[in-house]
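Section 3.1: Structural characterization of target chains.
Under the original work plan, the team committed to producing a structural model for every single-chain target entering the pipeline before any wet-lab resources were allocated. The record below documents one such target. The sequence was received from the expression subgroup and is listed exactly as submitted; it comprises 814 residues.
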Amino acid sequence: MAALSVTRRGLPVELFAPSDSWAGRVRYAAVAPVGAAGKGLGDMADTSTIAPGTSPVPSDRPGAPAGRGAAGLRKRVAPWLPAVAAYAAIVAMLLDTGTPVADVARYTLYVGWGLVLPGTLVYRALRGAPHTLVEDLALGATTGLMLEIPAWALFSLAGGQRWLWLWPLLVVVPFVAVPGLRRHWRVSSYRRPSLGWSWAMAGIAVFFVGYVYVTYFRQNEPIPAGADGAWYHIDLMYMLSMVGEAKHHFPIHNPQIVSEPLNYHWFSYAHMAGASLISGVDTPIVFFRLASPVFCVLAVLTLAVAGWRVSGKQWVGALAAMLTFVVGELTLSDMSWGQFGGAVAYMVWSSHSMAYSWSITFALMALVVGLLRAGPAELSYGRGGWALLVLFSVGAVGSKSTVVPVLLGGVALAGLAHLLTRRRIDRRLMAIGAVLVAATLFATVVIYRFATHGLNFGVLAIIKAYADVVPARSAWRHAFVYGFVTAMYLVFFFIRLAGIAVLARLGRPWGQREWFLLGAVLAGAGATLFMVHGSLAQNFFVRSGFAFGAVLSAMGFAALVERYRVTPRTLVAVFAAVGAGVWVIALGLRHEGLHQPTLHMRVMDGIAYYVLALAAAIAIGAVVWLVVLRRRWKGVAAVTLLGTLLLAGVPALVLDGWDHTKVPPRWYHSHVSVEEATAARWLRDNLGRDEVIATNQHCLPEMSKPGRCFSTSFWLSAYSERRQLVGSWFYAPRMVEIAAKLQTSNPPFWDQQMYEDNEIVFTAPTAERVGNLVSRYGVHWLVVDRAQGRESADLANFADLRFSSGPIAIYRIR
């Protein structure tokens, strides 16, 4: 395939020859640009269709003549159909779960006005030469997420939360008034992705949001409405309470303990609070319905465009997004409880901070590689890229604490490789590392205030839970069990990254790009294997780093396809056959009952059975190839083998969603009745935002036992959006550290005087005790949960009953 660039009306236009067919375009896009090995990252530039001295402007750029009549109209409309179809599908899911049409419309306007518009303008001004429209919009929206946080903080400090919807004007007005900035309103020199790529992105995004629809939307009512109330994952109530706190206060405090600052990665909750304030949509609707689709779509698009920029091939980005958000782990059942967890399954809805951090992480991936690139300016970031690096680095440390350590691991390995091969230190790597370290120090001092949140060193702690189930065994058997469980974990989680080994074998000598990506995924995996946390939070390291390996693995698959010149038609056939094959294996194993998880080492059986079945299928395929086909179609065989390893987890998310809907939510869930939610919402509607509540509601009945208070009941602060003097304390960062030191899940509240002052007002109130609650703590409202203890009859002498709903009674101190 050859290409010729000519000039028409002063603009470069690409002419393809000898074929302009779909297959020809895909084959052409898959060919790696030729560059001298060992010249840094500049040889990654996709410049094979650019004439010397011209900029990469495709013939079908916006503004170019598109033809007349129906054919021209179809050509103009076709590129937008995937986005329209994806949006329609996502809206249909939201409407099916009872989301009001008006809320969907208002939130759509918010995303456009509050994120995409200001973020895209700033991103265009800083990113250097344009690449694609989808990149500007995806990374622009991510930039908008970063700009929104300081805007929300400033408006909140001034008490002007109701005026937060005006903050985009701080960006829009300068871009209208300053002549040098006006050019960023319209860009005409974009590359245009293929229509197949666009539809692939739409399909991946809809699939991923569909998984959330099944496992999250359909399982959680924003507000309990039925006679039986609703069950919620404990963490969801806690996270919703933080959104309510951020909606009304800055600096943010722990909403259950009014005196305790929230030393936590809280940016995602501030974003949802700002989204509610700007859009006017109720906080639970934002949290349980509208925020997640935006996180998911942004994650898919940013990873796809980052993979495109990093590799120079658009379909590498698409495959990386597929490996991350469509293909799951080697599992045959529900993953919501698993010790090993998954890259995206379960986490996408149970940890909003994880989902929020993905687009920021992938933007940093593109930025770091772009800043290291030594080649043509059209694929590298200029000086403005350093400003974006600072912005996204600060955003990363505030969105998820595991992101920057992963990036630092990538930078460290890239620097080491550069030092060993070039005998010198790359100053750009040092500068990038300095920015990341500075962001980490900023977060440690300002955001986390030196809190460790109970994270400590622990060698193979994630393996230990399975391997030590039967402690009485010989040293040899002990070593074998640890080896077996570790091997199953590595296969379970990382089989999708098999393309990395192929890239190392077939690719040209690695540069900083490859070592950076490898270092990031190794840092994430290493931190997960050698750190320990009481709530398995060490898993977030590997989740933060996994996509770096997905891009590298996709590059390896691309190298294999190019090596054997496998046609797109053959690739489609291979993917279809492999996908059908792994489904047959998975369904067969489930039919035999080999998929049921248990909370002990037998859970390894499901992974082991799947591995054995895959190995048998591959062996049979190898025999057929050697005996029947007599070594013909070597390239197809190699691509099929690698494709089988990459796509082996295709059934995982579907089966996880299916099983998730079949199991009643009880374990690690809290029940919220309609009466409880009604009382909490009454508090939200009738109390000033700075009011503090005293309550006797501390324990989660579903998980507490006599003499053991499991203090994780968060529904009151979640739905009231008001602070408590002493509510449930177990998730407070200070308490997490105390529990880790004491190795207990039932530590007492650390300030016993405050706790006793709170409790005695309900059990033995006097004028002095009630007055102390008002003068010392500023409490004027009392909330009694009679299911956890009835109030003293004397309380009526000092407070007036203002509202009651079921077991909840609300008093106002006179």
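The chain is about 60% helix and 5% strand.
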